[in-house]
TrEMBL record:
The lineage of its organism: Bacteria, Bacillati, Bacillota, Clostridia, Eubacteriales. This is Ribose-5-phosphate isomerase A. It catalyses: aldehydo-D-ribose 5-phosphate = D-ribulose 5-phosphate. The keyword Isomerase applies. It comes from Agathobaculum faecis. HAMAP family: Rib_5P_isom_A. The active site is at E102.
Length: 225
């Protein structure tokens, strides 16, 4: 079976009646949303908060009852994908550009599960670019500040056009390299006007669920949660 599907299907088992569930975004989350949709058809009673317009459309199609963010006062469980994750459970997310809503929902959640195939496990994050959501107004200046910090921001382009997030903003992708100083980058990003959120999700999850080619699904618990 597809490794992403294995992880998504397994994660859906953690959803229980009565929960408010955060539905992540991306090709792994897609399988998880399908699996939850199947369980809803079979009588599971939940409410869900999607982390992107794409996931919202998928969940709606499957008949999963949805809340808007203004209707949410807590999230019991958030399940989402990652782009990279290290043994300290520090992750980069936002490859699909949904990092802002993903972080809002993950931050509200009592419990977070990250789902992935085994390619996402790394010793040090940073080989994958770090996505940073920036306001359109002043984006040139915000990127100039990033250059001053010695980073090389690349404005995200899709299909020949500047990529615009579900929130109407741009994404600057930072190519920092594996083993970059996470705390230093996080702190410096906080000083730049126009930076709305970044894709560092540091030690947020209670467990990772990893689809592997040789061992099936691995569930890795976070001892610090
Ligand atoms: O953060 C994300 C979207 O903003 C995704 O969760 C991340 O990019 C992983 O995607 P995939 O499961 O397709 O590999």
């Amino acid at each position: 079976m597809d490794m992403k599907k294995m992880a998504g299907d397994k994660a859906a088992e953690y959803v229980k009646d009565g929960m408010v569930v955060g539905l992540g975004t991306g090709s792994t989350a897609y399988h998880m949303v399908n699996a939850i949709g199947e369980r809803v058809k079979n009588g599971l009673k939940i409410q869900a908060i999607p982390t992107s317009k794409a996931t919202e459309a998928q969940a709606r199609e499957l008949g999963i009852p949805l809340l808007t963010i203004d209707e949410v006062d807590h999230v019991d469980l958030d399940i989402d994908g990652v782009d990279e994750i290290d043994p300290q459970f520090n992750a980069i997310k936002g490859g699909g550009g949904a990092l802002y809503r993903e972080k809002v929902v993950a931050t509200l959640a009592k419990e977070v599960i990250w789902i992935m195939d085994e390619s996402k496990l790394v010793d040090h994050i940073g080989a994958f670019h770090l996505p940073v959501e920036i306001a359109q107004y002043g984006s040139k200046q915000a990127m100039a500040r990033m250059e001053e910090y010695g980073w090389k921001p690349v404005l995200r382009v899709r299909d020949g056009k500047t990529f615009v997030t579900d929130n109407g903003n741009y994404i600057a992708d930072l190519h920092l390299g594996a083993g970059f100083d996470i705390e230093d980058v996080r702190e410096k990003l906080g000083t730049i006007v126009g930076v709305l959120e970044h894709g560092l999700f540091l030690n947020m999850c209670k467990r990772m669920i990893v689809g592997t080619s040789s061992e099936g699904v691995r569930v890795i618990e976070n001892p610090s949660k």
